[in-house]
Amino acid sequence: MFHGKKIVVVMPAYNAARTIERTYAEVPLDLVDEVVVTDDASSDETVEVAKRLGLRTIVHERNRGYGANQKTCYTEALRLGADVVVMLHPDYQYTPSLLAPMIGMITDGPFDAVLGSRILGGRARAGGMPLYKYVFNRLLTATQNLLGGAKLSEYHTGYRAFSRQVIERLALHENSDDFVFDNQMLAQILHADFQIGEVSCPAAYFDEASSINFGRSVKYGLGVLWVSLQLFLQRKRIASFRIFDPNGRRLVLASPPDQAHSLR
Question: Could you give the CA distance from residue 158 to residue 88 in angstroms, rounded to a whole number?
Fold first, then answer.
């Protein structure tokens, strides 16, 4: 518990056997009540390592995608009664040492969501972010801020904390099962007028850290631009999109994740 709130850390995993133990070792367990690993049909020993560490583990029988993995994460976190949910990639790209301030910014206010920004503080390139990714990040973020009416330093971090209210209210099942899920969720948060905070977060790039290649990055970038345009059109009441529908499909706790099973 942290200030009377239940904290659940979720780790959407895919081939993270070499880094998950290192990541978990730095999670402040005096603040965190549960750590959940959702494995998206890894081909390595991710599940075996998670089981050895005693982590609550959910396994997809087939690879369903990064967005689908997050849907499973958040469904399980809500089922466990989380008041605050933190998504932490198990590839050790983001430091678990920032969990305390990120959680506190939600439990003590004034924020509903908090992002660990690699750009805030100007250390992204020093941490090894490839130049083309840095340029894409800055261009996309500038466009997203313009279309979304926000002033975030970046939209593309994989280190995020949310209040329970955010996850319950958003139509997350309307979102993609692919990487653009992250930006759809932020667009939904902005549209719902939730407050987003940021903390400066160093990020490390190394062989074991997960990353998408140039081709997937381009596809992701085009998807991000479309989501940003959707948010703009929705706010201007020019068009309407399912991801912003207040009656859209939300996470359902009564049903287990499709084609997934729990090992604990």
Answer: 7
